[in-house]
Design goal:
single chain, three-stranded antiparallel β-sheet, about 40% helix, binds ligand 38R, about 450 residues, globular
Length: about 450
């Protein structure tokens, strides 16, 4: 990793840190994701390996490009193309929301990226503003596949899941172990209104509060989810919020256009079985009225070509022998299967030395030719904190009305169970306050910056 000069930290999470760097030889600007020491932390290792494996399969112009994988001194490093900023940065710059035309362009590409993942039976599971990168010319790229997973044979249950709470679908919140692509569609619904208004749609500060926000707007859960909720030991002694006076989306956001509300409502069906697929979403009025989809297909093609040109000189892909020697077995395989951007002829001879600017240039050319890319099935347009219980002023007032019993604090809970209960909104309450009532709208994001994030990652083992 000595060939990279650090330019500054751009992100930090449970996985480790992301640093903007310059390749000293080529001048290419990259983003290096450095994972925490993986030997001591099985979760970090799992996330790193999963991200590498999935990104290797997923190459698409609306997904971030992985350039290089290194393992050094027990740490994994993933080197990505550097993309200018995130949607979260945009929302911070425009706290009252982004304009309609920009949202439409972003959303179109976000859904295309997810449609591509779904067509490969991969669910992202953590779609949120921070994980949506935007290039200078406006090309959107989804990132952070650390929690993504492949759909196993149908009917097989997933025993672990993760998602940032505000964008989490009801089936995940109640602990359904059979969930699917529809969890990403739900997150899209949360995103669209947030991008247009600047206000997170369901800013729950615990899992139970999250369910409250959802039912308040969309009505009660489906029977299966109610049942799962009452069977879930995390919610033992808690009653589901029953909402009488729901505030539906149209009433909450009367200024949003009919086309936007239609799309949001489709994504935000309480019943995951009723949510449309991403391919169906792309056929919505929102994208097809006034000829947007076709027009934008052309525009996007040019944007991608422009980005490819801008990056061309910098492009360089390389895995050093020294990096390879630092690991073994499964990990060696991870480094070895760096098959993208590799000229097959040179692959066997130079397994760990990948340098093929010609293949890169061809790839850039291919990926800019959207029409020939992924077929019409997924490309119908032929383009190519702390959680806490609430004080009395909070939205958890329903808890009292609904007869929620706050269980006693059990001191000897295992760390995991304790944090799971905290996430569920049932744990102990240090420094209790409700930011939604004490702070201005803009401050949602400030909380995140201060590292007391309601967007935090919540890991649950069901
Ligand atoms: C930026 C720009 C500004 N903030 N990322 C995606 C990789 C990446 C990130 N490429 N280009 C960027 N550009 C890891 C940020 N922040 C950011 C974005 C995503 C921080 C963390 C993450 C989550 C993947 C992850 C770097 N992973």
């Amino acid at each position: 990793m000595e060939k990279y000069q650090a330019l500054g930290l751009v992100g930090e999470g449970s996985y480790g840190v992301v640093t903007k760097c310059r390749n000293k030889d080529s001048g290419q600007i990259v983003a290096v994701k450095k994972f925490l020491e993986s030997e001591d932390d099985a979760m970090v290792k799992k996330m790193a390996l999963r991200e590498i494996k999935l990104l290797k399969q997923l190459r698409h112009e609306n997904l971030v490009n992985l350039l290089e994988v290194c393992k050094k001194k027990k740490r994994w490093y993933l080197v990505f193309e550097f993309v200018d900023h995130t949607v979260l940065d945009d929302l911070e710059a425009f706290p009252n929301g982004l304009d309609y035309s920009r949202v439409r362009k972003y959303l179109f590409q976000i859904i295309r990226g997810i449609a591509f993942c779904h067509s490969h039976n991969i669910i992202h599971r953590d779609i949120k503003p921070e994980n949506i990168l935007v290039s200078q010319s406006g090309v959107v790229k989804l990132c952070d596949f650390g929690f993504a997973r492949t759909l196993e044979a149908s009917g097989e249950a997933y025993t672990d899941y993760v998602a940032t709470r505000w964008y989490r679908a009801p089936e995940l919140l109640v602990g359904d172990i059979k969930y699917g692509k529809a969890v990403d569609v739900w997150a899209i619904g949360c995103l669209v209104t947030e991008m247009l208004t600047g206000e997170p749609l369901f800013p729950g500060d615990s899992d139970i509060d999250q369910l409250y926000h959802i039912t308040k707007c969309l009505g009660n859960l489906i029977p299966r989810h109610k049942e799962l909720f009452y069977k879930n030991p995390l919610f033992a002694g808690v009653r589901l919020p029953e909402v009488k006076d729901i505030e539906p989306l149209d009433r909450r956001y009367p200024k949003l256009s009919a086309a936007v509300l239609d799309l949001a409502k489709k994504c935000l069906q309480i019943d995951p079985g009723k949510r449309p697929s991403c391919v169906e979403l792309l056929q919505c009025d929102f994208f097809n009225k006034d000829g947007f989809a076709e027009r934008f297909a052309q525009e996007l093609k040019l944007k991608i070509q422009k980005d490819a040109r801008d990056n061309q000189l910098q492009k360089k892909s390389k895995i050093s022998k020294k990096d390879k020697d630092d690991c073994s077995g499964e990990e060696r395989k991870m480094l070895a299967i760096q098959d993208f951007n590799i000229d097959p002829k040179s692959r066997d001879a130079k397994l760990f030395k990948v340098k093929c600017p010609k293949a890169d240039a061809e790839k850039a050319e291919r990926s800019s030719n959207l029409s020939s890319l992924y077929g019409s099935a997924i490309n119908p347009f032929k383009i190519g904190p702390q959680t806490s219980l609430k004080d009395s002023s909070s939205s958890l007032d329903y808890a009292k009305n609904a007869g929620i019993v706050i269980p006693p604090i059990i001191q000897n809970l295992s760390a995991t169970t304790a944090s799971m209960r905290m996430n569920a909104g049932m744990g102990p309450v240090p420094g209790n306050h409700n930011y939604r009532f004490l702070m201005k709208k803009q401050s949602f994001r400030q909380i995140r910056k201060n590292g007391n994030s309601p967007r935090q990652m919540c890991v649950c083992q069901n």
